[in-house]
Amino acid sequence: MNIESITDLELFEAVCSEGNFAKAARKTNTSLPTISKRISRLERALKTTLFERTTRTIRLTEAGIRFRLRTDKILNELRIAEKEANIEKELKGKIRITAPAPFATRILPSIVSEFGNLYPEIQLETVFGNEKFNLIEDSFDLGIRIMKPIRTNRCKILMPNPIVVLASPQYLEKIGIPHHIQELENYNVLYVDEHANVKIPGTKRTISELSKHRGIRSNNGSFLTETIAEGAEGILFRSLWDVENLLRSGKLKRIFPNLILDSNTSVCLLFPSGENPSKRVLRFQEFLESKLAGWKI
């Protein structure tokens, strides 16, 4: 089938939908003699009559009805194929992403790697750090933030951010496993500053008020996590996503397994305001959401 025959099918569809040649000519921006000539050529090629013509009306013959059923499917498939081809053209170029270093280190490597294998012509440029970049001024396409969600179409929740209580098995073997949260006032407690005011269920205290003994301090939560996992003495309050792998490996152990603290924050995906995201950015967003959709407390 050459390109002219595809055009003939489109003109045939226009005549069918409009009910006469004149309207079909206007719809397709084609002259009336041209559209009449193209339909006649199509009929000759098919060796059949598609329309019964009178001076005032036209209607499909039985052969025309059967042919229209086929051409509708063909043209629909062609439109889908064209749309997919155009999308593939746009799945090229660069995506700039910023995210907090701890979250990026724990969660993103496998996701970024798999996405890169699926879409090798999309270049992911990742900038990780605890500072909050201005997405517009710093030319980022997406920003991942751990924050209190805001009601806007520029902010989407990716996953929750619950806090759990942990320690290393070595440390628990040395001190014994605490049975009540109040017992922790006698131990070194480790947490990042943004968790200091998180309330502890069943008490009137926050994490920072729980104990006078604060252990190692750091602005990097993953550093605290790794330090405790290596056997440092202390009780750690930390986001579950940061410790999940270490819990599975046995390097960390939860204390009070039923205790989950609400950080009042979520892991959110932010878009810069202004123009709508490109198709490659939307494709990465969809991929990221699908990978994190099954994450549960």
Would you mind describing this structure in some detail?
The chain has 297 residues and is of the alpha/beta class. The chain has three domains: 6-85, Winged helix-like DNA-binding domain superfamily/Winged helix DNA-binding domain (Arc Repressor Mutant, subunit A, Orthogonal Bundle), CATH 1.10.10; 93-160 and 266-293, D-Maltodextrin-Binding Protein, domain 2 (3-Layer(aba) Sandwich); 162-262, D-Maltodextrin-Binding Protein, domain 2 (3-Layer(aba) Sandwich). Helices cover 43% and strands 18% of the residues. Helix 1 (3-18) packs across helix 2 and helix 1 packs across helix 3 (32-46). Keywords: DNA-binding, Transcription, Transcription regulation.
Lay out the secondary structure.
Elements: H1 3-18, H2 21-27, H3 32-46, E1 51-53, E2 58-60, H4 62-90, E3 93-99, H5 101-118, E4 122-128, E5 142-147, E6 155-160, E7 163-167, H6 169-175, E8 189-190, H7 207-210, H8 221-229, E9 235-239, H9 240-249, E10 253-255, E11 266-270, H10 279-292
Parallel strand pairs: 3-4, 3-5, 8-9
Antiparallel strand pairs: 1-2, 5-11, 6-11, 7-9, 7-10
Protein name: LysR family transcriptional regulator
Domain HTH lysR-type: 1-61
GO molecular function: DNA binding; DNA-binding transcription factor activity
| CATH homologous superfamily descriptor of the largest domain | Periplasmic binding protein-like II
Per CATH, which architecture of the largest domain? 3-Layer(aba) Sandwich
Q: Say what the CATH topology of the largest domain is.
A: D-Maltodextrin-Binding Protein, domain 2
Task: Specify the helix fraction band.
Answer: 40-55%
The ordered string of helix (H) and strand (E) elements is HHHEEHEHEEEEHEHHEHEEH
Low-confidence stretches: none
Number of domains: 3
Report the mean per-residue pLDDT as an integer.
89
What spatial form do the alpha-carbon principal axes imply?
rod-shaped
Q: CA-to-CA gap between the ends?
A: 56 Å
Strand content: 15-25%
Largest sheet, spatial ordering of strands: 4-3-5-11-6
Keywords: DNA-binding, Transcription, Transcription regulation
Protein name: LysR family transcriptional regulator
GO molecular function, one term: DNA binding
Organism: Leptospira barantonii
